[in-house]
Amino acid sequence: MSPRFATDVITFYHPGFWGLDSTEAVRELAVRDARGFWERIMDTLAATEVTGIELTFAPGDVDSALRAHGSPAAFRRALDARGLSVVSAFVAGDDAPDWRQGDNLPAIVADAERRAEFLAEAGAELLVTGLPMRTTFGTRPPFFVDAAYMSRMADIAHTVGEAVSRHGVKLAFHTESHSTLWYERDIDLFMTLTDPRYVWLCPDSCHITLAGGDPAAVARRHTPRIALSHWKDATAPIDTHLTVDATIYARQQPYMTELGTGIVDWQAWADAMSRTPGADTVLIELDEAPDPVAALRAGTALAKKALSGAP
After folding, report:
1. What whole-number distance in Å separates Cα of residue 231 and Cα of residue 299?
2. Is 127 helix (H, G, I), strand (E, B) or coil?
3. Is 207 within 8 Å of 252 (Cβ atoms)?
4. What ranges in the chain are assigned the alpha helix state H?
5. Quick one: which of 152, 160, 215 has its CA closest to 182?
6. How much is the pTM?
7. For residue range 170-192, what is the model confidence (pLDDT) as tens digits?
8. What is the CA radius of gyration of the chain?
9. CB 121 within 8 A of CB 73
10. Is the separation of the CB atoms in 207 and 269 below 8 Å?
């Protein structure tokens, strides 16, 4: 059975796609005309084989979908009318309570449950999040990603995972660059400390590669717990000592590229992904593609070839 193809809404954030001159202008447009923002994205997907979407940070977030359509059910109907569906929603660090703050747990759980309720009514069952970012190397006092830290994160993950499970939603963790779930060792440690009934993994082929890791090897080690994966290419390993501040994501951008134009071993990745519980969805991630249709078509073709085993 062929998988369904999906993409993250961030694929459509490039100003050129909207005929605008900045990402901020795209955000302003989406606030001014949320319905038009979503309708253009949905209509554009009709020209591709992509039928699934992952909501992300603003402007393509849960709140934007609600502003556009009024309710999760109405959003679902608008998608259904075009043969589309919600796959997942991604929780970006700046859009949610900070996991490092010890007294934030009630707010963290409430935020996750709000998103899970939306997903359940919209017809999806996967909430994707990440762990907090590292601090810049050399910062004093130093911040260590050690067993004590990971145990705290695991405790929070268990609480959140159990809470969203009551809505029929799974909690999966994304392997974000320069975060505390980035290196292969981070992933292995966190997965060891968490209960597989409540905590799942969403590996990203690009981000793991940027850390100098082997994304296919990570997937093989954690096959039974991969609920979804992000198919994304990388140009080369990144400087692991970049300054971690508000500009970190922009400085990561040049290391991310369209599928087939980087160094990810797609054959190995596809083989590993085909053995996971999330094998029925291929989520092609293309940060801010100027021509989403061409990029998604190319990504879909590459994924199909890799999954077929063709050289």
Report:
1. 9
2. strand
3. no
4. 15-18, 23-32, 34-45, 62-69, 72-80, 105-122, 147-165, 184-193, 205-210, 215-221, 248-252, 266-273, 292-308
5. 215
6. 0.96
7. 999 999 999 999 999 999 999 99
8. 18
9. yes
10. no
